[in-house]
Description:
The chain is an alpha/beta fold. The chain has a domain at about 120-300: Up-down Bundle (Glutathione S-transferase Yfyf (Class Pi), Chain A, domain 2), CATH 1.20.1050. Helix content is about 40%, strand content about 25%. The protein has helices at about 35-50, 125, 130-145, 145-165, 170-210, 230-250, 270, 275-295, 315-325, 360-365; strands at about 1-10, 15-20, 25-30, 65-75, 80-90, 95-100, 100, 115-120, 220-225, 260-265, 265-270, 300-305, 330-335, 345-350, 355-360. It has a six-stranded antiparallel sheet with strand order 2-1-4-5-6-7, covered by helices on one side.
Amino acid sequence: MRLLAINLENFRNIHSANLTFSTDRILFLGKNGQGKSNLLEAIGLSASLRSFRKHSMEGLVRSGEGEGKLFFRFLLDNGEESEVLLGLSAKGKKVLEVDGEPVRRLGDYLGGFPAVCLSSRDFRLVRDSPSDRRKWLDLLLSSCDPAYLSHLQKYHRAVRERNALLKVGAGTAELVAFEALLGPSAHYLFQARSRAIAELLPSIGQFYSTLSRNEEIATIRYRPDTSLDDSSAWLEFFARQRARDYQFGNTRHGPHRDDFDILLNGADARNYASEGQQRGLILAIRLAEYVHLHKQLRRLPLLLADDVLSELDPSRRENFRKLLPPQAQVFASGTTYPSEQDSFIWETFRVEAGCFAAESQNSKNG
């Protein structure tokens, strides 16, 4: 898949931008705070309708404006073109169209225009709470499997309703009704997450091994809150937990408490990996995500790199360039070229105060 053009109106600090792309290596170059990351954020929205920089959609519309618009034109792997129009209100509401047709359900959209973003903000995958790691894994699996998204939504709705009943001391019959929904969805989520972690593991190990010149070993380990064999076992489990859940007023156990460990040489990376090693682990995880999406969707995702190369030491930077999938369209941002030696491989746009200007090869020579 390729992004051929993007048009933005009133997005972040960008009043208006109309860009077309003719290569597979595009670099947005400029000082910090000029709008480079904003452009990458906009491209990322076309994949998941979520920002890789913040949890909510508020604040994406340019200050003082009521709405913003994002238009994308893609070339799909089958040779056909597709257009996406995303409208944003200042309060965070979205309106989405694909090829002129409205899209109202997230499940009907996810996976259609995949992208993977490499960003220093991904430190949260290593350092922060289990909920951040679950959100990453849930979005990845939802992009590949509409049934996963459906079960995820059913499960969280049922947990919310069950918790509300527990808080008011509702009768057993009412709880059983929601547990009947919890069981099958809990089992589906557990199985899907188990498979996904197992499939991601080899790629993560290989990518990190290359980044570290085969000196260190990276692994990822699923740590489910509860492991059960089938839906019936999950139903029995929630029934056994009922008495204690009444006391606490919430559903204490289940897939909503799952986590996974990121390990370096067998030790927890949160506590034993340096900042440079954690950066390498994040890049390895994101590149493994790229491989997984490509395999499952049979569509080449876009690859977005938000000023990550400048944060790597020279050795890891050199090895990272070798890992970039040669067939991927890469959009990167930075204050300088990753190296002067490869500046000519990039289709470059200079960025200043939310404005973008294409740079010619002659100007690079100068």
